[in-house]
Please model this.
Amino acid sequence: MGGAIVSEVNGQPINDLADLDKVFKESKESIHTIKLDDFPKLLYLDAVTAELDNQKLLNGAYRLGLLKRIE
Model:
């Protein structure tokens, strides 16, 4: 999915990484709807499963110290 352009998440327009971070932080949705500019157009992300997967990455096999760096 490298290079995919996210245009909307949960109905909110995305213009930059700060918008994306804000929508995910503030969302109360259990399933995130991610709209892309190109194929496959729509992705659905289970928020609970994604968070569990993220926690496994912390200090795990990839030794990530934090999960994001939004600039």
About this structure: Residues 42 and 66 are 27 Å apart (CA to CA). The first strand starts at residue 6 and ends at 9. Residues 47-57 form the longest helix (11 residues).
